[in-house]
Amino acid sequence: MPDVQSTVVEFVNKLRKRKIEGSQATAKCTVELLRSVISYQRVPHANQAAALIDAVKAVGQQLVAANPVELAVGNVVRRVLHIIREEDLSLTTAAMAGLDLLDASDDDDVDNCKGIGYPAMSAAVVAAAARSTLRPPSLQTLLEGTPESATVPYTSSSGADSESKTADKSSLTRKLKHDVIEGVNQLIHEIAGCHEQIAEQAIEHIHQNEVILTLGSSRTVLEFLCAAKEKKRSFRVFVAEGAPRYQGHLLAKELVARGLQTTVITDSAVFAMISRVNMVIIGAHAVMANGGVIGPVGVNMAALAAKKHAVPFVVLAGSHKLCPLYPHNPEVLLNELRSPSELLDFGEFSDCLDSGAGSGSLQVVNPTFDYVPPNLVSLFITDTGGHNPSYMYRLIADYYSADDLVM
Amino acid sequence: MGAAEKKGAARVQKDSEDLSRQRLQAIVLADSFTTRFRPLTLERPKVLLPLVNIPMIDYTLAWLESAGIEEIFVFCCAHSMQLIDYLKKSQWCSLVRTIVSHKSTSVGDALRYIYEQQHTETSQIQGDFVLVSGDTVSNMPLAELIQQHRDRKKRDEKAIMTMVIKKQSRLGIGSDQLFVAVDPVTKQLLYYNEGDNNGEVCLDKSLLDTGVLVCNDMLDCYIDICSSEVLSLFEDNFDYQHLRRHFVNGLLVDDIMGYKIFTHEIQSSFYAARVENLRSYDMVSKDIIQRWTYPYVPDINFSGNHPLKLGRRGIYRVSDAVQSRSADIGASTVIGYGTKIGNGSKICKSVIGNGCSIGSNVVIQGSYIWNNVTIEYGCEIRNAIVCDGVKIRAGAVLQPGVVLSFNVVVGQDFVVPAYSKVSLLQQPTKEDSDEESEYADISNGTTHLLSGVNNLQMESKTSELDPDGAGYIWKVCDSVHDAEWKHSIVPIPMEKLADMAQAMDGDGIEDGSVVPPSGELKSDTDSINTDANDPNDDDYGYFEREVRETFLRAIEEDNNVDHITPLINSLRFSYDMASADCAGAIFYSMMRLAMDTQHNSTSELYRNATSIITKCKGVLGFYVKQIDEQIEVIMKFEEMCQESAALSPLFVQIVHFLYDKDVVQEDAILRWGEEKAGADESDKVYLNQCEAFIQWLKEASEEEDS
């Protein structure tokens, strides 16, 4: 356990100091960290799911606070919580079915056991389980507290009977943890494989002799374009350089290395070029619940240009980028201002920064992200396929539990 | 058995790996050994003073940690308990080791102490380390730089230090102007001068052969990558105090050991600066608010602080700040936790700490208000620093440049005059020893000046603020007052700025061209020679005396005499003397020693002299490589003979002896003869004495020629 604590602290430090960049890398690190948190977490006999949820939430809160701009962290934490809830639910349902079975068999040799408290207990368990599992969590259950009542009969049972029960229960515990870790592994797999999943759909969207515009650098976009190229589609790519970090240059280099026809343009030339473009494809930093997109700075301008010329504006996003929050949510920090040294040379401009007597001082603003409202987005391509912006809320309902939206 | 062996082998392998991959270590000097921040530093160590609401040392430690430094030694001196307590509670405790010494009064002492500790403690500096002071704010990556340093060290054993410099066009960050000369290809540091040089740079002629880059727009970040030799060099040279003034310049002048210092100019995308004085405190704070130091900015939690939220126009505050709607918060302002701001207050370009309460209709401009400060209604604060716990009663006015130390109370409607420093503690009438040591070495002149100031301060009486106020106004010394506008946080007044710009332009003409024709550049040797011959010049007298004392000490201790060469070298630097002067002074000391030694007859004196010359030939020989220097020795001797009757009969004999011992070459003697030939008859006494000898020399050379 101390091991886990130190890795958590280490990761929190990394997040704080902005040492990890890119949603995918962050998501991957987060989910791997949470997996080790879960596997080291001691689960009490009673109420294992709640213990796991608490543990994950505690770590998750630290992680989110460390870098509130990186929404992928929160997304992944909520996904893991959702997995725990789901597994718990399916286990309890299975247990209920098992109890029914057990009941039937018990009825056969009821003479062998003392079996006085048993039927009563099983009835209580069934009732509690039914209450806690079959219904979606309602306000009432929330107020009543967690379904602890389900465990009360276990403690009241006695003798050899109770021994067999605890053994059974510990296997149940192990089963829950095992299932959760299995689920988390699946999530890791999903995050690792999201590029390929998205790239597979490239052939359906990119056609022969088309001109594609992209802005900044995104690994998803790179894989997407290359996948189309591999399928013998020939098309041209315009890359807007993505000032001030100029990651577009790197993307262009990669694209050329893979044999695509690539042209680099300045960000300010996007509007001039858009009439020759058939489709704009960008990678997102995060996709909000309303279908709005947070992307590299300059994306909104490209989206507006695309709208003006009726060019489809396609956003690629792995499912870990789906954020269940709305952009107007106060805890969503949409942007981060980076160092002005990416724009200006400190050595040359340091004299205008000092607001000496009388003279004005120079302010430099260097935002990292841009927000694109949902009405400018034509299509989202996620690892589960293409979706309309208005469908995002539905996807989010699939991936997250409503309980976890506020952590 | 086999398994155990394998295990052992594995461990050995791992050990050797560890050795090859040295841990990255850093020494943070948590004491600046200056008094620039007084009176604040009387109550709290400088590195714990808040810089945009976060103690300075947190910036340094956070940066070092994220740059991959694995072990940080923090050297504490003043207020060490406070600092140690703070570090223990902070998140750095696992990374940081503290070294405490109360006796150190300079960087030199500190490093010597660390060097001594090495042998006693298990924790120690192994190999290369980063040397910074605890007031450094930076976000530059270090790993690559350290690697560069190591590679260079591998190629060249003598490259023991890499110094980080940064280009900046800003005028007067408060420190003295810096002139550096670097080799444009290898980036080796050739010349370093910080301080008042009136825009004049004296470079050695030899530097101009290869081409040299002279810059005056560089900022020395005081970030050094040092090899372990640096510590032992400090240990060997007990008079090295200041890292730059003594150590760097000492190495540059010292040609025996031949150690080299290299420079590294920071790429424009990274930031580095040091909070040296109140002026740079202001500058660096503004840079932090402007986010040049990203990710070490107030809205990122990098040191366990409460992160603030960044709003429009560069305003940082908490989301639930208690602030009146009518309060006007201007651009570039930071407001800490739990601070209340009243109606109609105007705050701009300022930093307000945590838990402050600010009344209504208060004006705060360009000021730094620390934690738990109470400011009542109608106060006016411009360009001031207000420390923790200060109370400013209604209607008080702080004029620009005021510094209020901890827990001061300013009375109602009181006007604190500009540039004044107020503290609950009385101004120390006698300066502390560290102040002395800081300044004593600059030059003799300054020491005198300072002692004069001391007298003034003793006479000046401290005044209380007001009936209901608490605190003493520290007297501003007149002689320092001139510099006050330079060092305070007030923007430099327009007229001063114009003056400075003019001065800079004047410099520009002289220094603008990278390599001026050598004729224009005064070489060291020339300029000093003329000065040294001037009888009015005291400096040479002092220098000669110092050399003599050093020399005598060395002889007394019967050290290997060669060891005094570095000492004399450092003296030579601090008095700015040419090597000919050293030669003269050393020879003078040797002769004086010979005369002071017991002797009854001239022949005994001759024996004394010859034995000393034989013994110290090496030292003297080091400085008399050139004909000019040899002539200087002969002239010096001539001078001495004129003064002392005992020595005069021996002139020829000793010159002959010097010739025999190869200290003086025949060319030098002949040149001296030629020079003297045209002098007055009275001056020719010794020339006449030498007539025969010179004749012999001439014949000998002619014979050789034929």
From TrEMBL, chain A:
Main localization, broad class: cytoplasm
Pfam assignment, any one: IF-2B
UniProt GO cellular component terms: cytosol; eukaryotic translation initiation factor 2B complex
GO molecular function, one term: guanyl-nucleotide exchange factor activity
Region (Disordered) residue spans: 140-172
UniProt keyword annotations, A-Z: Cytoplasm, Initiation factor, Protein biosynthesis
Compartments in which it is found: Cytoplasm, Cytosol
InterPro entries in UniProt: eIF2B_beta_subunit (IPR051855), IF-2B-related (IPR000649), IF_2B-like_C (IPR042529), NagB/RpiA_transferase-like (IPR037171)
Biased composition (Polar residues): 140-161
Family: Belongs to the eIF-2B alpha/beta/delta subunits family.
PANTHER family for the chain: TRANSLATION INITIATION FACTOR EIF-2B SUBUNIT BETA
Subunit text: Component of the translation initiation factor 2B (eIF2B) complex which is a heterodecamer of two sets of five different subunits: alpha, beta, gamma, delta and epsilon. Subunits alpha, beta and delta comprise a regulatory subcomplex and subunits epsilon and gamma comprise a catalytic subcomplex. Within the complex, the hexameric regulatory complex resides at the center, with the two heterodimeric catalytic subcomplexes bound on opposite sides.
UniProt name for this protein: Translation initiation factor eIF2B subunit beta
Species annotation: Capsella rubella
TrEMBL record, chain B:
Keyword Cytoplasm applies: yes
Region: Disordered, residue numbers: 518-540
Gene Ontology MF terms in the entry: guanyl-nucleotide exchange factor activity; translation initiation factor activity; translation initiation factor binding
Protein name according to UniProt: Translation initiation factor eIF2B subunit epsilon
Keywords for this protein: Cytoplasm
SUPFAM superfamilies reported in the protein's UniProt record: ARM repeat, Nucleotide-diphospho-sugar transferases
Main location: cytoplasm
Domain W2 span(s) in chain numbering: 537-706
Superkingdom: Eukaryota
InterPro entries associated with the record: ARM-type_fold (IPR016024), eIF-2B_epsilon_N (IPR035543), eIF2B_epsilon (IPR051956), LbH_EIF2B3/5 (IPR056764), NTP_transferase_dom (IPR005835), Nucleotide-diphossugar_trans (IPR029044), W2_domain (IPR003307), W2_eIF2B_epsilon (IPR044123)
Organism: Capsella rubella
Family per record: Belongs to the eIF-2B gamma/epsilon subunits family.
GO CC terms of this entry: cytosol; eukaryotic translation initiation factor 2B complex
Subcellular location: Cytoplasm, Cytosol
Subunit (UniProt): Component of the translation initiation factor 2B (eIF2B) complex which is a heterodecamer of two sets of five different subunits: alpha, beta, gamma, delta and epsilon. Subunits alpha, beta and delta comprise a regulatory subcomplex and subunits epsilon and gamma comprise a catalytic subcomplex. Within the complex, the hexameric regulatory complex resides at the center, with the two heterodimeric catalytic subcomplexes bound on opposite sides.
Family matches, as PANTHER family: TRANSLATION INITIATION FACTOR EIF-2B SUBUNIT EPSILON (PTHR45887)
